[in-house]
Write a structure and sequence with these properties.
This protein is mainly alpha-helical and 336 residues long. The protein is 72% helix and 0% strand. The chain contains twelve helices and no strands. α2 packs parallel to α10 and α6 packs parallel to α9. The longest helix has 36 residues. The protein is globular, with a radius of gyration of 20 Å. The structure holds retinal and fe (ii) ion. The site of fe (ii) ion has 8 residues, from α10. It catalyses: all-trans-beta-carotene + O2 = 2 all-trans-retinal. This is Probable beta-carotene 15,15'-dioxygenase. InterPro entries: Blh_diox.
Length: 336
């Protein structure tokens, strides 16, 4: 659950690259393009119509294996931000982080429909951060809003059904609102793709394919492909690049540990609530309410990282030359 809202050079915009030079496409662009095209073709030509239960099980497994790890580097990000230094402050960090996650689940249980709307808004900002990082948050959030609304434009009933499972019957109206906003948001997404094309053609390809995928495949299939092969893959790559000064094994260990712990929590929740609803409904709730719970503390960390980075930039003697400077020592940067 990660990325930068800044112009700091990344793997795709290497340090030392002069502004105006087009970044080359990162590996996940190819992964997403190939997977999205194959999925789009499969649905256009063969229309496989996987049952909802199959889609739910697939998203649970893929989100666990490919999706969750991208937020699991947060403890290392927090250390770079100076949020913890020793065992005691590491314990406090974990307590606050998991406390926030538990608070989100509690809020969801008390007020499910407003929580779903809040989750969609936070997610729009979060996913929009996959592109146009040199721009202000507003256009990126709109790209995220488009991404999350297009499934309702294609199949409002399917999205309404999923929202009802997650947040009660009242949440169906959220799908109706997204469907109504879908067309203007689609136009906006395509405009943003054209704007992005001049500076980063690979982003234009990604945005165009996101739209096509959302409009041709069922909502959960679209989300699985985007979330696992683009969003998560991008932030895992960036996360490992950010931590390149750490031993790779330590980074990998943190990723595994902080992926497995929430998975155990999800398993305990599933076992504790067994029999209260069908297993696929419960699985859907665990996946998306769990993602909401983990996204909030993660976004708080991202916000702190961005603030630290802005402070860092103000302190810079020659801000306009920053992108052309040779590689600087790593600065705290939170991923999305
Ligand atoms: C529930 C649901 C949707 C929304 C999913 C969201 C909002 C996921 C957010 C995940 C996050 C923030 C992960 C962080 O890395 C869709 C795809 C619109 C349609 C299908 C049902
Ligand atoms: Fe994320």
């Amino acid at each position: 659950m990660t990325a930068t809202a800044t112009t700091r050079p990344t793997d795709t915009e290497p340090a030392g690259q002069a502004p105006g030079i087009r970044p080359r496409a990162p590996r996940e662009t190819y992964l997403f393009t190939a997977t999205a095209l194959a999925t789009i073709l499969a649905f256009l030509l063969a229309d496989p119509e996987p049952p909802l239960v199959v889609q739910t099980v697939a998203i649970a497994i893929l989100a666990a294996v490919l999706g969750m790890p991208h937020g699991a580097l947060d403890p290392l990000v927090a250390r770079r931000l100076g949020l913890w230094r020793g065992a005691l402050s590491f314990g406090a960090f974990n307590l606050v982080y998991s406390g926030l996650a538990v608070a989100v689940v509690a809020l969801w249980l008390v007020a499910p429909a407003p929580s779903l709307v809040l989750f969609l808004v936070v997610s729009a900002v979060h996913f929009g951060g996959d592109w146009m990082r040199e721009r202000s948050p507003a256009p990126r959030a709109l790209a995220g809003a488009a991404l999350l609304s297009l499934p309702a434009l294609r199949d409002e009933d399917a999205v309404a059904g999923l929202y009802a499972t997650l947040a009660g019957e009242g949440a169906r109206s959220v799908a109706a609102a997204q469907s109504a906003l879908g067309l203007p948001l689609l136009v906006l997404l395509l405009v943003l793709a054209v704007v992005a094309a001049r500076r980063a053609p690979h982003e234009a390809v990604e945005l165009g394919l996101v739209a096509l995928l959302a409009l041709t495949t069922p909502p959960l299939v679209f989300f699985i492909v985007y979330f696992c092969t683009l969003h998560s893959a991008r932030h895992l790559r960036e996360g490992f690049a950010e931590e390149r000064e750490q031993p790779r094994r330590l980074t990998a260990l943190v990723v595994v540990a902080y992926t497995v712990i929430p998975l155990i929590a999800a398993g305990v929740f599933l076992a504790a609530t067994a029999g209260t609803a069908s297993l696929d409904d419960q699985l859907l709730r665990v996946v998306f309410i769990g993602l909401a719970a983990l996204t909030v503390p993660h976004m708080v960390l991202v916000g702190l990282g961005d603030r630290a980075l802005r402070g860092d930039e103000r302190a810079s003697a020659h801000p306009p030359l920053r992108a052309a400077r040779p590689a600087a020592p790593p600065r705290p940067r939170a991923r999305r």
